[in-house]
Write the structure tokens for this entry.
Amino acid sequence: MNEATVMSDNKRAGLQKKPVRFRNERRFVFAFLTPVLLLFGVFAFLPIAWGLILSLFQYNPMSDHGRFVGVANYVRMFTDEVVLKSLWVTFKFVFITVISNLVITLLIAMAIQRVRVRWLKDFFRSVFFLPTIAPLAGTAIVWSTMFSYQNGLFNMILEQFHIAPVQWLSDPHYALLSVIIMTLWADIGYNIVLFMAGLDSIPDMYYEAAILDGANRWHLFRHVTLPLLSRSTLFVTITTVISYFQAFPQFQIMTKGEPFNETRVLALEIYDQAFSNSNMGYASALATLFLVIILVVTLLQMKWSRTQWEY
Amino acid sequence: MHRKNVWLDTTVTIMLVVAACIMLVPYLWMVLSSFKGNMDIMSGSSGFWPKHPSLDGYRTVLQDAPFGTWLLNSAVTSVIITAVTLFTSALAGYVFAKHQFRGKRIWFLLILGTMMIPFQVIMIPTYLITAKLGIVNNLSAIILPNLVSSYGVFLAKQFIEEIPNDLLEAARLDGAGELKLMVRIIAPLILPMLSALGIFTFMNAWNNYLWPLIVLNDTEKMTVPLALVYFNGTHIVNYNVVMSAAVLITIPVIIVFLIFQKQFVKGLTMTGMK
């Protein structure tokens, strides 16, 4: 269908103007856009629609026929204690990790900006950025061994201070915290670089003017840096929130959602329902909920920050 | 005022040095653990430094595991994905920026809209589609769904719109076809954007874990991140083996990063890609 529309439209455009050249252009558009749109169709548009439809079925890939169950999957998930718990864990994880990430990255970015020596500045930026390029799956494994009860680094450090060792990944009090620490280590590089670019774009004269007016360091930060950085902050916040909602490898590798589902985020629950339990219909309903949450959170953030800008 | 600044600068630098050291600890841990002998690990309290340094871990990885195959799988899929994604993004961006056809706005909005969709939302149907195509457990299942990027199309369109139409018209009058125009004039002009997109596409393809986890089962077919995790499952007792594999996989990535880090950072600030 898409080929037909592309073609007919360009035919019309071609007839109105110089024929030969526009026939070439039209052929070009048709020949190259079709495969691209086809790929988008099969691997982006179709799955979205299919996912919505699938969420109304009870579907197991082993038995080929799905059974239509209407909104039963949606009703079920709001009474499913594991799902409700995973929603709570997801929000807790995203909230704590995003806030910590923003505070830490902004502080480090401002600190690095203060460094005058060029190579030292580059060195710091590289060191903080390094973890972001390593595969998260590998990082998660390295951190699992650091959190190990018997020979892990963290318990070695505690031992130095004569503190009893901790079951970092299997104690319900510490499991989520451990994953949060690892995630922060693995991911702060991006936002540091983005904040540094944002800080660079603030003209020096604003600071100079404020200093002439007798502003101290806190005033400068509160009334010059923060407001002029708000665009960067909005962008960084939205991308970080979206990416932390989707955090998956660290949970699947380090804790598998245990102990007592304390680290079972929604992304992991969707994967487990779909590919471990073969409940693809139910998992699709969860995925739809997931999509709605992300869209709502993003829209709220944008709306909230727009009202912030107005005054 | 001036003296206070010196003090503050020194404090800030020292704190950054401390923070940087903390950031590097996991790498040190990984490398040191890879040299630990089985004796160290079995005795239970192996300590930070390896007591009996040995290369057993590396030997096991290189002998017992199809290490070369994993690297090759990752390299082949990532290179193909990157090359094709750059091509399709630049092309679709050019068409959307400089050509007219019916439904242009709607197609573009649809493509933009997919940027908002988390992968978890489409992974189940995408798996069913690859199953229907009969390519599950095949490297093409990794490649095929990743040959287009909505973000790439969006970026390319933004950058190509900046190119003056007169330039394109002049080239057309000289008899250049659309494809030649694309390769000879547009591609060089958007090269910075393309290299940024290329770096991030390659990195995402190389590091991708969730999608290979869904569609690949054979040890021989696995890509690097997946293989590492699989290996972790089979060698959980001798973690020196797993750490050796992690070192062998991480070091090349770090070297590549150190060589291209300028482009990396520039690309990140230009595109904001994650």
